[in-house]
From TrEMBL:
A Pfam family the protein falls into: adh_short
Protein name per its UniProtKB record: SDR family NAD(P)-dependent oxidoreductase
Keywords: Oxidoreductase
SUPFAM superfamilies: NAD(P)-binding Rossmann-fold domains
Family under the similarity heading: Belongs to the short-chain dehydrogenases/reductases (SDR) family.
PROSITE patterns according to UniProt: ADH_SHORT (PS00061)
CDD domains reported in the protein's UniProt record: 17beta-HSD-like_SDR_c
Source organism superkingdom: Bacteria
Length: 283
């Protein structure tokens, strides 16, 4: 990445939140950006005052593989290359596991997993042929740990973590790189009903989840994470071409993640004696 050769980015989920801030900063630094969203009108309104000469705004349903392929081809045709892909599209869902309908579960995985897979199948042949490329998958600290009421969202992010870890080992053979970004609570509209889905009906017995839902909606505007700094961190990760496979973003993310590591270690050690009894006898 040099000042004379703009980096070309393909970013999903760009009309609000961290994705929108990322697009703004990329355009301001003179990079090429293919920004996908369900509403290009909303994206362009949000970019009012920003120089969009290097922007390709694409209305895209990530669950449609053919449409994803076409969007990637448009990116290559417009910018004659592709360097970094950021899979950022997603939304929250807050409900008990029992309250989560089949339709809600399938919709979540369509976006968070199958949509990502569609993008990967489109861009990986390009990266492989050019012996490079950087994929940044935006997960969450809830891809590492889980809380009551977040079962569906965590299931999607846990799946994304596993997919990304396998992918990282695969693309390393041809010089590609994968980074999993795991934000905590950022001061975006993620904790509003614009980005947080709720169940159509609730079930008696989960009063603590109703209280947590109310408390989360009240958090809006007080989250610790700064999306300006978060987007800058993602750009720095791509620019350095270095860094760990997993990158936490936010002090709250670090606290949650390290607590999970400690809990896992305690569980493993507590079950160690029984675990070692299940091998075949050594001969």
């Amino acid at each position: 990445m040099t000042a004379t050769t703009p980096t070309t980015w393909f970013v999903t989920g760009t009309s609000r939140g961290l994705g929108l801030e990322l697009v703004k900063q990329l355009l301001e630094r003179g990079d090429n950006v293919a920004a996908t969203t369900r509403s290009t009108d909303r994206l362009l309104r949000a970019l009012d005052g920003v120089n969009t000469d290097r922007l390709l705004a694409v209305a895209l349903d990530l669950t449609a593989a053919d449409a994803v392929d076409a969007a990637v081809r448009r990116t290559i045709d417009r910018f004659d290359g592709l360097d970094v892909v950021v899979n950022n599209a997603g939304y929250g869902y807050l409900a008990a596991v029992e309250e989560t309908t089949d339709q809600a579960a399938r919709q979540m995985f369509d976006v968070q997993i199958f949509g990502v897979w569609n993008v990967l199948r489109s861009v990986l042949p390009i990266f492989r042929s050019r012996h490079g490329g950087h994929i940044i998958n935006v997960s969450s600290v809830l891809g590492l740990t889980a809380m009551p009421g977040w079962g569906l969202y965590c299931a999607g992010k846990f799946a994304l973590e596993g997919l990304s870890e396998s992918l990282a080992a695969e693309v390393s053979e041809f010089g590609g790189k994968v980074t999993i970004v795991e934000p905590g609570y950022f001061r975006t509209d993620f904790l509003t009903t614009d980005s947080l889905a709720l169940p159509d009906t609730t079930t008696q017995g989960y009063e603590s989840i109703r209280e947590m839902t109310h408390n989360h909606l009240e958090l809006q505007g007080s989250q610790l994470g700064d999306p300006v700094k978060g987007a800058a961190a993602i750009i720095a990760i791509a620019a350095s071409k270095e860094g760990p496979l997993r990158q936490l973003l936010g002090s709250d993310s670090y606290v949650y993640a390290t607590a999970k590591v400690s809990a896992l270690t305690a569980d493993f050690e507590a079950g160690r004696e029984l675990a070692l009894t299940t091998d075949h006898p050594q001969t």
